Amino acid sequence: MNKNSKEYYLELARHCGICKNDLIYPIFITESNQHKSLVSMPGIAKIPYHKIIDHVDNLMKKDLRTLILFGDPKKRDEKGSLSFSHNGIIQKTLKLLKTTFGDKLSLISDVCICQYNKSGHCGILDTKNNQIKNDETLEYLCKIALSHSEAGADIVAPSSMMDGQVKIIREKLNNEGYKKIKILSFSAKLSSSLYKPFRMETFLRKNLKNLDKSSYQVSYCNRKEIIREIDSDIREGVDMVMIKPSITSLDLIYQTSKTCKLPIVVQIVSGEYSMIKAASSIGAIDEIYYLINLIGAIKRAGGNKIISYSSLDLSRFIGR
Ligand code: PBG
Ligand code: ZN
User: Fold this and answer.
1) Which of 1, 49, 76, 77 suits 121 as a labelling partner, its CA being 20 to 30 A distant?
2) Distance CA 68, CA 303 (A)
3) pTM assigned to the model
4) How far from 302 is each of 1, 17, 136, 157, CA to CA, in Å?
């Protein structure tokens, strides 16, 4: 069999136990009317609201049925108020997709304020001392999670790494009658340079230089602290845990999988995507072959679901 053929990849993916059902595809939805290609992430674009049905229809035809949605609002303010508005871009999109596709589609919504506020931080910034106000931020996360649940999200995914985010969101959703909505927490989001393409494309560029999230994202060098973060989300009642980036976290995935009874979601993040695209564009690696190897390694370590910007590229080469 030709090593670069579709049949070869299908066989390899099957051997590694990878199927399309494992893949989650991130999409960026913009409130602007223009389709905007992302320079640092070739092949990925911000999709305008009016094109979303066509876009998702195409994904469904390729059997990609689980999506994680990130919003690109037209305005930002201090508190990120468009993040929890009923007319926010994510809320409108969730409603539209649920009424159009119903339960054929599983929708995960990113719950954070950094794309909606002026600072680009995942928490409310106290400008007096330049610190993040953890507990005040939790109130916003609850409002966002509730508004997404009302709009039709199946799973809400708090990504801000605030302490106590799972517990308070769970309580809020239960009290409001949304017991069935699941929480996927970005439990171990390691502070990393690999989020840079995502930030370049979604945040205000002038803020980027000084955007240091290391006070709330976990350090990649302290294994016990990382495991504690995951354990505390489990105690707070999370339904699925997420670990990211992927390539630098295989040991954590493995360790977590030994004791954790919940599904483990792993994200191949924007910087990993960009590196793979850059290397393959100069012919230095075979993109699909590498991706199947990487996802195979994540599965071998114990990851169950993979969030990847490459899901669409991969869909031709992976069976159901
Ligand atoms: C922000 C958020 C980030 C990512 C997901 N949610 C970036 C950040 O922490 O600044 C990264 C995703 C990626 O790099 O693909 N809440
Ligand atoms: Zn954030």
Assistant:
1) 49
2) 17
3) 0.95
4) 29, 12, 35, 20
Question: Which residues, listed in sequence order, are joined to residue 268 by a DSSP beta bridge?
Answer: 308
Residue 277 sits at φ, ψ, to 5 deg, of -65, -40
Which residues are identified as catalytic? 189, 244
pLDDT tops 90 at residue 37: yes
CATH of 6-207+217-314, one of 3.30.565.10, 3.20.20.70, 3.40.50.300, 3.30.70.100: 3.20.20.70
Q: Which atom of ligand 1 is nearest to the CA of 196?
A: 14
Distance CA 111, CA 187 (A): 13
Angle of helix 250-259 relative to helix 287-301, nearest 10 degrees? 30
219-245 pLDDT, tens per residue? Answer: 888 889 899 999 999 999 999 999 999
Q: 213 CA to middle of ligand 2, Å?
A: 9
Q: Which residue has the CA at smallest separation from atom 9 of ligand 1? A: 195
Using a 6 Å cutoff on CB, does residue 198 contact ligand 1?
yes
Note the pLDDT of residue 1. 63
Nearest to 262 by CA among 228, 234, 290, 223: 234
